[in-house]
């Protein structure tokens, strides 16, 4: 365990098993729907890669794209409430069934804004796939179609989640020691 981690919330093997389950669910639900996985950078990149490989059998037309969105900045540990969008998708959304892949849904502000944006670009449907659901902090009505794990109201890192761009490569989800960010 990394010395700045207070405790491991979700160990690597548990993440792998749950991501495999999610992949099978998505493969079944989207078998004839040509899904487009849209990952939010930077936090969802590890989850997205693992999830994409676990969608088996692979539905015809499965595609992957990324966008950048954030409501955190620098060393912030709570959302600013303002969602900043970065990159544009390369894949046209008209008529596509989109799965928005998030590392964590906290207040729900970013995910809700992205769902609205994707629908506005012509997606036939948009569902959210989140590794972590931090529902105690939810401030907007947000439905997660697929969820890996419930997350307590603690500052978590690892498996793509960061603090100031650090700790993303940890193979587990852990709680960062408060003295590291206060």
Give me a quick take on this structure.
The chain is of the alpha/beta class and 182 residues long.
Report the order of strands and helices.
EHEHEEEHEEEE
The assigned structural class equals alpha/beta
Overall geometric form = globular
Kindly state the number of beta strands.
9
In terms of DSSP E residues, the strand content is 25-35%
Pathway: Purine metabolism; IMP biosynthesis via salvage pathway; IMP from hypoxanthine: step 1/1
Catalytic activity: IMP + diphosphate = hypoxanthine + 5-phospho-alpha-D-ribose 1-diphosphate
Cofactor: Mg(2+)
InterPro entries: HGPRT, Hxn_phspho_trans, PRTase-like, PRTase_dom
Question: What is the element layout, followed by pairings?
Answer:
Layout: E1 5-10, H1 12-29, E2 35-41, H2 45-54, E3 63-70, E4 84-85, E5 97-105, H3 109-120, E6 125-133, E7 146-150, E8 156-157, E9 173-176
Parallel strand pairs: 2-3, 2-5, 5-6, 6-7
Antiparallel strand pairs: 1-9, 3-4, 8-9
Helix pairs in contact: 1-2
Subcellular location: Cytoplasm
Main location: cytoplasm
Cofactor: Mg(2+)
Output the keywords:
182 residues, alpha/beta, 6-stranded mixed beta sheet, 3-stranded antiparallel beta sheet, 3 helices, globular
Task: Explain what this protein looks like in three dimensions.
With 182 residues, the protein is of the alpha/beta class. It contains three helices and nine strands, in the order βαβαβββαββββ. Strands 4-3-2-5-6-7 form a six-stranded mixed sheet, sandwiched between helices. A three-stranded antiparallel sheet has the order 1-9-8, covered by helices on one side. Strand 5, helix 3 and strand 6 form a beta-alpha-beta unit. The protein starts with a strand and ends in a 6-residue tail after the last strand. The model has no long low-confidence stretch (mean pLDDT 92).
């Amino acid at each position: 365990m990394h010395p700045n981690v207070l405790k491991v919330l979700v160990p690597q093997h548990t993440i792998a098993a749950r991501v495999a389950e999610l992949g099978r669910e998505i493969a079944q639900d989207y078998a004839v729907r040509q899904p487009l996985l849209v990952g939010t950078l930077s936090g969802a990149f590890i989850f997205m890669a693992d999830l994409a490989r676990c969608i088996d059998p692979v539905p015809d037309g499965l595609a992957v794209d990324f966008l950048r969105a954030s409501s955190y900045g620098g060393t912030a540990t709570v959302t600013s409430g303002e969602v900043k969008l970065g990159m544009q998708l390369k894949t046209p959304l008209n008529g596509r069934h989109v799965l928005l892949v998030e590392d964590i849904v906290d207040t729900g502000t970013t995910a809700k804004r992205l769902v609205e944006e994707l629908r506005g670009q012509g997606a036939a449907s948009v569902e959210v796939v989140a590794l972590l659901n931090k529902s105690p902090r939810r401030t907007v009505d947000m439905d997660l179609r697929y969820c890996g794990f419930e997350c307590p109201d603690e500052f978590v890192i690892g498996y793509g989640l960061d603090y100031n761009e650090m700790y993303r490569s940890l193979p587990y989800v852990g709680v960062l020691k408060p003295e590291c960010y206060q």
